[in-house]
Amino acid sequence: MDEVCDIVPSNKGNNKINVRGYLMVKERNREAIFYWCCAKRKSEGCKGRAVTTLCNNLHYLRSCTDHNHAPQASDAGVAKLTAQIKRQASETRDKPAKIIQDNIISIPEEIHPYIPSPNALRRTISRVRKSEMPPQPQNITEINIPESLCHTLHGNIFLVKDYMVGQERILLFTTRENIQHLANALFWIMDGTFKTVPTIFHQMYTIHAPVGAEDNSRILPLVYALMTRKSE
């Protein structure tokens, strides 16, 4: 019993294993003994089975039966790639292009023709992140900003004020660096938008200012205020 089966992790906890090129899904286990069936059991009626023993987080193959189709290493490779991309999407705020590139670069050449398109992988990343977003609050008392959204990617404070004015609420987002840019700017540009805010807020008010040397400056948004009503 020395043949180890690679684990193909899943964000939902339904891990699969690669048994000699076949993807297998768990049927049941009795303590350290795990029973697996072919991942194509429903789609192709495959009756392939495998039994493994879990020891030190490794699955050692005890026995396996034949499948009614040829093994496809690409299936396991693509499943493992997708699982890695989902994990990185969940654990980091990296851009989708970086996540995809980080994981594809180590994939064997023979797997490349079977990799989903970049658009499909981006949709996968979007679904993972959307599923982890907190539900939309129904009123201002339910608003609870996650800690990860209170700071920038560099760890600096971003949610600087949380005001309650009577029955109204204002969330103010900016950084010390942005305030310094405002202090040094010759002019500000201020405006509100009503189309890109959560439903219980009325508008997002932004303050823009030029950033950089005068001959090479850019107008950038530096302060964001989410407001539950239109205010002067």
UniProtKB/TrEMBL annotation:
<feature type="domain" description="FLYWCH-type">
    <location>
        <begin position="8"/>
        <end position="69"/>
    </location>
</feature>
<protein>
    <recommendedName>
        <fullName>FLYWCH-type domain-containing protein</fullName>
    </recommendedName>
</protein>
<dbReference type="Pfam" id="PF04500">
    <property type="entry name" value="FLYWCH"/>
</dbReference>
<dbReference type="GO" id="GO:0008270">
    <property type="term" value="F:zinc ion binding"/>
</dbReference>
<keyword id="KW-0862">Zinc</keyword>
<keyword id="KW-0863">Zinc-finger</keyword>
<dbReference type="InterPro" id="IPR007588">
    <property type="entry name" value="Znf_FLYWCH"/>
</dbReference>
<keyword id="KW-0479">Metal-binding</keyword>
